[in-house]
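Tokens in:
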């Protein structure tokens, strides 16, 4: 085997395959190889989106799309003007993969199977003669006067240009540090909150549709649906906080308090409505007259937490109880004691410092002919298909730049 290639891509994941295919398709004369440490590639694509692969998100305005990136918001604006959601949809469609939009904007292959995406990548790579070398873990990278020397677990390779798409791999980040790059220390993002609390202990599976959540003592806040789980709380209201607060919450060792407004209404307005209920439903028990479109089981728990008994009627409760209930509904404090993995999607915040990447080309500002794409750089997003969109956009622009010069 000839170990001299025109272009070497390190990492056969989402970004690596996307870039390799684009380069090889545009430039059949170039030798393009992917060095992948695993015996198979695309393993994250496989398990992504609960096995369905949430490929992208139906948001078509770049300035709106970037708001989903706690790290990378400013830097991705330019790149998204060149390649974003619509381009992703077209790219896959042109290669026989149709995507569909779900109610919340997430986009999946119509097949509902991540294997469709994998098959597409493997077929395209083969068609355009991308050499995919599995079981080739990269151990070191040295710069030469005219390119790079790459040592792997199965021999040494040389190439003029290198695209690094190794995701969040600490060993590769260390290696890049040795080459002079700054690495922002990795911390997990997109996790759920562990909460042990009587109010939610017996009601896993309950969803409050429109909730506001704040981390006490910080500016961190979010809104959206909230799901009670067996170990705490999840769903977009929580996951967004975990992403935007990834660094802050790690500093607190995942021990902090949240204030939950279950009905997205201020406390005073809530109290007014409760007073109206007292008039209107005087003879009914509170437990049997759920308000604010809340799930019955959650309403019951909040009533009990406000020291109202199961058989108490609206007519019988006093001012203090009403105030306590309003407090439980709009300002309920919960102690978070740790985090758990959100199985559908998780990412790492951290990676190559954004200041050291040229976002017009995705080339390193420190080392010529070295490019980055995907999770290796300090970009990450909330859940919903945005993390893959970062991989596709970076890989597309890097591949376009690589073949230009
Ligand atoms: C369970 C789960 C579900 C997810 N679901 C979604 C989703 O539905 N939608 C979404 O947008 N995002 C999702 N994500 C996030 C998404 O998978 C990542 O953001 C995306 O895969 C990043 O692509 P990448 O190419 O940068 O890295 P990766 O896909 O991680 O690929 C990196 C590749 O590099 C290889 N590699 C690493 N080190 C070396 C080395 N030294 N030598 C050679 N090869 C190496 C790895 O083996 C891997 O194949 C999910 C993540 C997880 C964990």
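Residues out:
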């Amino acid at each position: 085997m000839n170990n001299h290639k025109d272009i070497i891509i390190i990492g056969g994941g989402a970004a690596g395959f996307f870039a390799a295919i684009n380069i090889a398709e545009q430039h059949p004369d170039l030798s393009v190889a992917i060095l992948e440490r695993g015996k198979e590639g695309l393993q994250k694509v496989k398990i992504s989106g609960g096995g369905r692969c949430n490929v992208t998100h139906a948001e078509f305005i770049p300035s709106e799309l970037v708001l989903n990136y706690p790290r990378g918001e400013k830097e991705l604006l330019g790149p998204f003007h060149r390649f974003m959601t619509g381009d992703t949809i077209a790219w896959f469609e042109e290669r026989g993969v149709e995507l569909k939009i779900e109610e919340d904007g997430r986009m999946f292959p119509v097949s509902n199977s991540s294997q469709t995406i994998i098959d597409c990548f493997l077929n395209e790579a083969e068609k355009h003669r991308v050499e995919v070398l599995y079981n080739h873990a990269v151990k070191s990278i040295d710069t030469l006067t005219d390119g790079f020397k790459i040592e792997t677990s199965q021999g040494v390779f040389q190439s003029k240009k290198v695209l690094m798409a190794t995701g969040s791999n600490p060993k590769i980040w260390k290696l890049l540090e040795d080459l002079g790059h700054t690495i922002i220390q990795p911390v997990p993002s997109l996790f759920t909150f562990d909460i042990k609390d009587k109010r939610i202990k017996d009601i896993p599976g309950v969803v409050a549709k429109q909730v506001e959540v704040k981390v006490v003592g910080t500016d961190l806040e979010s809104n959206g649906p909230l799901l009670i789980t067996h170990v705490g709380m999840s769903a977009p209201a929580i996951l967004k906080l975990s992403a935007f607060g990834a660094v802050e919450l790690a500093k607190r060792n995942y021990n902090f308090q949240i204030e939950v407004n279950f009905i997205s209404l201020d406390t005073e307005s809530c109290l007014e409505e409760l007073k109206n209920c007292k008039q209107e439903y005087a003879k009914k028990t509170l437990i049997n007259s759920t308000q604010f479109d809340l799930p019955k089981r959650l309403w019951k728990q909040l009533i009990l937490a406000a020291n109202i008994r199961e058989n108490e009627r609206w007519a019988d409760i006093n001012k203090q109880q009403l105030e306590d209930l309003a407090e439980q509904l709009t300002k309920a404090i919960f102690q978070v004691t740790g985090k758990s993995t959100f199985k559908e999607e998780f990412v790492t915040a951290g990676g190559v410092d954004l200041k050291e990447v040229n976002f017009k080309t995705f080339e390193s500002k420190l080392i010529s002919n070295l490019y980055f794409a995907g999770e290796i750089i300090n970009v990450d997003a909330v859940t919903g298909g945005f993390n893959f969109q970062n991989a596709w956009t970076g890989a597309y622009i890097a591949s376009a730049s690589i073949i230009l010069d």
